[in-house]
Amino acid sequence: MSGEKHTLAYDDVTIHDPNEKTVYSRDETALSSGVSHDHNEKSVHLRDQTALSSGVKQDVPYDDVEHARKGSRRKSSVIAAIKDNYGLVDAPSSEASSLKAGVDYTHRKLKPRHIQLIGIGGTIGTALYVNIGRGLLNGGPASLFIAFSLWCSVIMMVTNCMSEMVTYLPISSPFIRFAGRWVDDAFGFAAGYNFFIFEAALVPFEIVACNVIIQFWTDSMPAGATIAIILVIYAAVNLFAVKWYGETEFWMALGKVLLIIGLLFYTFVVMLGGNPLGDRFGFRYWKNPGSFTTLYGYEGNLGRFVGFLQCLIQASFTIAGPDYVSMAAGEAENPRWVMPRAFRAVFYRLTTFFMLGSLAVGILVPYNDPDLREAYRTGAPGAAASPYVASMTRLRISVLPHIVNAMVLTSALSAGNSYVYCASRSLYGMALEGKAPKFMTRCTKNGVPIYCVVATLLIALLAFLQVSNNAAIVLQWFVSLVTASQLINFCCMCFTYLCFRRALAAQGISRDSLPHKSFWQPWGTYYAFIMCFIMAFVGGYTVFLPGFWTVPDFLFSYTMIAVFPILYLVWKVIHKTKIVKPEEADLKKDLDEIEEYTRNYVPTPPKNAFDKWFNKIFS
To answer: For bias kind Basic and acidic residues, which ranges apply (predicted)?
Structure first.
């Protein structure tokens, strides 16, 4: 398909070169030369000026686009089809037609550095700097490090299968739409709303976290004012062109990267004696009080295993990455080249940060540290409950805690910003597939799905429940109810990949022909699926221990596990969907447009040296 040659003819415009040739092969056309010729005062926008190469869409009235979409049919030439239906010829070069005009109205404006930092930004919130200390108290430094390292291997396998699918078909909300196309339409519906509810619920949670972090310095600022300001920031960032969202998220997420690198460097220096006390403590706390601790009153090996299991549960709910990277596929420049590199880079960076971060907190603070235990017991605000700040207090370092708190605030802002983006794009992807109201597909001229963003921000208004102490518990319940959703998402990704792989085999398509082929398949995907499936149920096991049973805790742990099959069955019964047979799975939908875009893509030159080097570092 990618090797086809096309004769490009237009209704009233003929392409000529200086030698008066009239028919061109793909490598000989004016398209490949990047120039345009005038005929009867009309301009034909060629390779480096086309909508296909720039990834933006023509400013066609929405009703006209809808009419064109309904009337369009697949034709022998994708370029001709897009030209006939959407008027590419007369489009201004700066705001030309989209890769998927009439279907997907978003713009491909995200560069490699944006994609990678979006993935990092959505995964690293306050958990890596603050909540990780709770795992240290539950299991000890060795349990924490082993658990986080083990779960990184699971995330590697999830990333592996996602990278192969998304690189093959980099569309908006990919894994949600793949689930509907290659497994069952009802499965795609359940997966989509599971992910949307999860991401949307985390937005008010992070807004409230920002308010709590600010209280590290002062509690005089009204909670309502803080929440309102953050909501305005999120609205401003997400309602403008996606490139501005990408730029904002790049800088905020870069702050997270610098913070964790700084904290790892801090750990190395102080453990070797570079602290006001001159204490060269090294791995002292791994020996005294020890590497493992018991939990829930159990002693011996059983108690240590229970402590380790609690660390593994925390790791499974904390470490992510491939879902956030994949959500940006539909708005990435040159995705066939960018996405596999982004998946690999985000995985390696995140696992490095989480593995070394879990090692660092075990070096800095003993698992029986009284200050850290008291901070969690009383719900100390912001970085006050961070094991890094606890170590700074022990070592009598007075300035760094304020710097850490400021960076943690940026981290929470960035995480909430990523959740708004991912929630709105998942809702948009479902609208494109007919699983959300049709008006949700409407985008601004800058390619932003405005109604999807607004819907997500309306859910974020739940953050105002924090203003009332009595209502604040409702918000905490709402967030707790969706804790299992992330593991369900990973199970959906793995299961969808297995169906994708089976469909390739049934239709005689070799994986060697794909633009990107992942390794250790399908065994890596089986491993990830089994681990995520088990941990989804193990996550709430403590409610079954003697003396720990409460109805709210049981509901918090297992509600979404029950909701997912209910969503699946409701859609399946209403729409009478069928499980997709491997030989009938639609592996070609949107593929022509992606390959045409890839053939005609011309990279945008960097604006300056800064842009050039950052794109090189993060590519």
So the answer is: 19-29, 36-48
Q: What type of residue is 358? A: S
Q: Is the dihedral of CA 136, 306, 551, 486 positive or negative?
A: positive
- Express each pLDDT in 12-22 by its tens digit: 333 344 343 33
Residue type, position 556, single letter: F
Nearest Cα neighbor of 109 from 165, 53, 175 is 53
Structure-token pair, residue 35: 């120039």
- CA–CA distance from 560 to each of 479, 564, 565 (Å)? 11, 6, 9
* Residue 393, phi then psi, degrees to nearest 5: -65, -45
| Cα(50)–Cα(27) distance, integer angstroms | 16
Beta bridge partners of 504: none
Q: Residue 38: which H helix or E strand, with range?
A: strand 38-39
How many angstroms separate the Cα of 224 from the Cα of each of 126, 231, 415, 465? 21, 11, 20, 9
Burial of 562 (0-12, 13-18, 19+ CB in 10 A): exposed
Q: Which two tokens stand for residue 361?
A: 């907190």
Q: Which of 592, 195, 192 is CA-nearest to residue 432? A: 192
Residue 517 and residue 514: Cα distance in Å, rounded?
6
Helix axes 485-506 and 174-182, enclosed angle (nearest 10): 50
Q: Report cis status (omega within 30 of 0) of the bond before 289.
A: yes
In contact, 594 and 170? CB cutoff 8 Å: yes
Contact 280, 272 (CB under 8 A): yes
Please, where are the H alpha helices in 169-292?
174-182, 185-214, 223-239, 242-271, 284-287
**Site of tokens 């979409």:** 69
Q: How many CB atoms lie within 10 A of CB 277?
A: 12
Q: Which long-range contacts (CB under 8 A, 24 or more apart) does 60-69 make?
A: 60/86, 60/87, 60/97, 60/101, 62/442, 65/101, 65/102, 65/105, 66/102, 68/102, 69/102, 69/103
What 3-state class would DSSP assign to 332?
strand
Diameter over CA atoms, the chain: 88
Per-residue pLDDT tens digits for 150-178: 999 999 999 999 999 999 999 988 989 99
Binning the chain into helix, strand and coil, the percentages to the nearest 5 are: 65, 0, 30
**Coil vs helix vs strand at 144:** helix
Closest C-alpha to 460, from 180, 208, 174, 121: 208
Tens of pLDDT, residues 261-285: 999 999 999 999 999 999 999 999 9
Residue-wise DSSP of 515-584? S---SSTTHHHHHHHHHHHHHHHHTTGGGGSTT---HHHHHHHHHHHHHHHHHHHHHHHHHT--PPPGGG
Amino acid at 561: I
In order, the DSSP letters of 47-61 are: GGGSHHHHT--B---
pTM, full prediction: 0.79
Q: Dihedral of the CA atoms 239, 241, 244, 249 (nearest 10)?
A: 60
473-528 per-position pLDDT tens digit: 666 676 677 778 999 999 999 999 999 999 999 999 999 999 999 989 999 999 99
The alpha helices in 124-184, defined as continuous H runs, are 132-139, 141-168, 174-182
Query: Which DSSP letter does residue 94 get?
Result: G
